[in-house]
Design a protein that fits this description.
The structure holds two protein chains of two kinds.
Chain A: E1 7-11, H1 12-26, E2 30-34, H2 50-54, E3 59-61, H3 66-78, E4 82-87, H4 90-93, H5 97-104, H6 107-110, E5 120-125, H7 140-144, E6 150-153, H8 157-167, E7 174-179, E8 186-190, E9 202-205, E10 210-214, H9 218-231, E11 236-240, E12 243-245, H10 249-259, E13 262-269, H11 274-286, E14 295-299, H12 308-314, H13 318-329
Parallel strand pairs in A: 2-3, 2-4, 4-5, 5-7, 6-7, 10-11, 10-13, 13-14
Antiparallel strand pairs in A: 1-8, 6-12, 9-11
Helix pairs in contact in A: 1-8, 3-5, 9-13, 10-11
Chain B: H1 15-40, H2 55-62, E1 70-73, H3 78-84, H4 88-96, E2 113-114, E3 119-122, H5 129-142, E4 149-154, H6 161-173, E5 177-183, E6 186-187, E7 190-191, H7 192-195, E8 211-216, H8 220-237, E9 241-246, H9 264-271, H10 275-285, H11 291-314, H12 329-332
Parallel strand pairs in B: 1-3, 1-4, 4-5, 5-9, 8-9
Antiparallel strand pairs in B: 2-3, 6-7
Classes of the chains: A alpha/beta, B alpha/beta.
């Protein structure tokens, strides 16, 4: 729906779909490969209608063989195509982990720079739909641990719309995390939205009192928290990391130099996650800019339970962020 | 579906071709023996898997392929690389870890790569390269390239899920891939009877609707004939083919293997079927080659292997400052 100031309001699902459609139109070597992406319309209806528009050569349904079809995507990339592989959910991605780690991320190095793998792997993930322990995961840190991969997290509608097209230009393997919890949420993006940069973190909200650094499902929660904090006189800056490997240190450090306080927020389990790495880098590089210790809010270290109240309590919520920020600033 | 049938060796090769096949097998054998020596001298480190005994498979299959085709191998791939035309010096230098190696020393014995000859490894996660091969064939089909993709693996790989996923995908998508199973009867130290519920691997093909043939992998002419027929079939139909080559590894799995799992008598029995004397005797008995030809080939093999060693010895170490290279293509613009 067009609004007066040249923006359109759309769901996260629609943004993803437009991104895929745009990529297929602009990159003729690309094709979408994944479970139920065609006839079913995508497990979450993201690719609904694309089979009818692009045909079965470019929208390929595959059997339940995660290692097989992710490996095939890698092979197709080695031999001149630009495959977009969809892994239905991150929960199934471990079945393809060997292909991603030992082939996609490794072949260029192991071949002494001869064979690059320009594959894009889209993985939906996240917590919050009462899907219980085997279907509720924030495993971005597992992938961000792997040298050779580029790991993106689409925490906003704009990135859901634009990351794929840019990723397809990369000569190296790119993983894009998408968030099922956000599929029905609406937001306004520029009517002419398209490819976005995939090298820099982004300041989603300017502030001066504290930097809330997050990504993925944490971005809108942090922005909502920042809005409410404003009413209490706290002006928080919100950084969306977007690129989890390689991390954009400069945007992070500049924010620390500005606010001198940092709260890291993410849904992944608390230990050994993205926040751990960002925190260490802040300590190593801009420690003397800090007025207080860096703090973290991560997922509780437990397989995600089914009941709503326990699931909600397992990951940082808007109120947790508000409370933590308030506590961090109350000694001033 | 093609019926499973034994393939008979009928035609004798002419002198040039016969000598080529024999020479390639002799070269592999000598290259591998030299590698073992160099391993004991600690010139080569890491894992080293030798192809001694199995030469007929690589030589028979590779001579049936064209240079347009893509090749993917396992970690026991020195022989395949040699026959494919990767320079012996670059292979040896790779095993030394020198930057003149075919993978600039980054890979070692298990990861020989060579873009020029479309040699895609050197893959050391058992069966991990099978889905990749299917994807390469899929890309060829999409781009209407006149090429097939040939993927070598052992019978150990046929117990992995990826073997079954790859066979299913290849037939489902109808892509031109030649799966070559080098059945040497042992997955490391586990005999096939302990790892496969059905040991006749060709019987696995019908379940995936894939054409299949099984061949004596100790007979280079039989392998070559079977491979040519398989490739012809792939070119006619555009569909995958499964070729089982029954063979045997004379040496240990790797340099760390005490061979506790098999009897010496078994090894000796298989050595009676050694593919090299077998072809040599055939060519000599039929008066296709002479003792002089044999002597000349032996001398040439020795010379070529020594040149490879000399090349590796003269190679240089990549500077440590270059350690971070080859991680992302984007930054390097190679």
């Amino acid at each position: 729906m067009m609004s007066t100031n040249n923006t359109i309001k759309l769901t996260y699902r629609e943004a993803l779909k437009q991104g895929i459609r745009d990529a297929l139109l602009k990159e003729e070597k690309s094709f979408l490969l994944g479970e139920d992406v065609g006839r079913y319309g995508g497990a979450f209806a993201v690719s609904k209608g694309l089979l009818q528009e692009f045909g079965p050569e470019r929208i390929m349904d595959v059997p339940l063989s995660e290692s097989g079809f992710v490996g095939a995507g890698i092979g197709a990339a080695l031999n001149g195509m630009r495959p977009i592989v969809e892994v239905m959910t991150v929960n199934f991605s471990l079945l393809a982990m060997d292909q991603i780690v030992n082939n996609a991320a490794t072949l260029l190095h192991m071949s002494g720079g001869q064979m690059n793998v320009p594959v894009v792997i889209r993985i939906s993930c996240g917590i919050g739909r009462q899907l219980a322990a085997q279907h509720s995961h924030s495993w971005e840190p597992l992938f961000a641990h792997i040298p050779g991969l580029k790991v993106l997290s689409a925490g906003t509608h704009e990135d859901a719309r634009g990351m794929l097209l840019t990723a397809l230009q990369s000569p190296d393997p790119v993983i894009i995390f998408e968030y099922t919890f956000m599929l029905n949420t609406e937001a306004e993006i520029p009517a002419n939205a398209g490819a976005v940069d995939i090298s820099k973190a982004r300041v989603r909200r300017e502030g001066k009192d504290i930097s809330i650094i997050t990504y993925g499902a944490g971005v809108y929660k942090a922005l909502d928290a920042a809005k409410e904090l404003m009413a209490t006189g706290v002006n928080a800056e919100v950084i969306d990391l977007r690129i989890l490997r390689p991390l954009d240190d400069e945007t992070i450090f500049n924010s620390v130099r500005k606010t001198h306080r940092v709260l890291l927020v993410e849904e992944a389990w608390g230990a050994v996650n993205i926040s751990s790495e960002v925190s260490a880098r802040i300590m190593e590089n801009v420690f003397y800019e800090l007025d207080a210790p860096v703090q973290r809010l991560g997922g509780v270290e437990i397989p995600i339970p089914y009941p709503k109240h326990l699931e909600d309590a397992s990951i940082p919520q808007k109120d947790d962020i508000i409370n933590k920020v308030t506590k961090m600033l109350q000694h001033d | 579906m093609e019926a499973i049938k034994p393939i008979q060796t009928t035609l004798l090769p002419d002198k040039t071709y016969g000598m080529k096949l024999l020479y390639q097998m002799m070269l592999i054998r000598r290259f591998e023996q030299k590698s073992a020596e160099l391993y004991t001298k600690e010139k080569i480190r890491g894992f080293l898997h030798l192809y001694v005994g199995e030469e007929a498979v690589a030589v028979g299959v590779m001579n049936s392929l064209s240079m347009k085709d893509n090749i993917l191998c396992t970690y026991r791939e020195h022989g395949h690389a040699l026959v494919r035309g990767v320079s012996p010096g670059a292979i040896m230098a790779e095993m030394y870890g020198k930057q003149e190696g075919c993978s600039r020393g980054r890979g070692g014995s298990m990861h020989l790569f060579d873009a020029k000859t479309k040699f895609f490894g050197g893959n050391a996660i058992v069966a991990g390269h099978l889905p990749v091969a299917v994807g390469m064939a899929l890309a060829a089909k999409k781009q209407k390239k006149d090429e097939i993709t040939c993927c070598f693996f052992g019978e150990g790989a046929a117990a992995e899920g990826e073997f079954h996923e790859a066979m299913n995908l290849a037939t489902l998508w109808s892509v031109p891939v030649l799966f070559v199973c080098e059945n040497n009867l042992y997955a490391m130290g586990t005999a096939i009877r302990f790892s496969h519920s059905v040991v006749e691997l060709e019987k696995k093909a019908p379940g995936y609707g894939i054409d299949v043939a099984a061949v004596d992998g100790m007979d280079v002419l039989a392998v070559e004939k079977a491979a040519k027929e398989a490739i012809q079939k792939i070119k006619q139909t555009g569909k995958p083919f499964f070729l089982v080559c029954n063979t045997y590894r004379f040496r240990a799995h790797s340099m760390f293997d005490a061979e506790l799992y098999r009897e010496k008598t078994e090894v000796e029995e298989w050595k009676k079927r050694d593919p090299i004397p077998k072809l040599q005797e055939l060519l000599m008995n039929e008066n296709i080659i002479s003792k002089t030809d044999m002597d000349a080939m032996n001398t040439q093999v020795e010379k070529e292997v020594q040149q490879a060693v000399d090349f590796a010895e003269a190679g240089t170490w990549e500077p440590v400052e270059d350690l971070a290279k080859y991680l992302y293509r984007e930054k390097e613009k190679l």
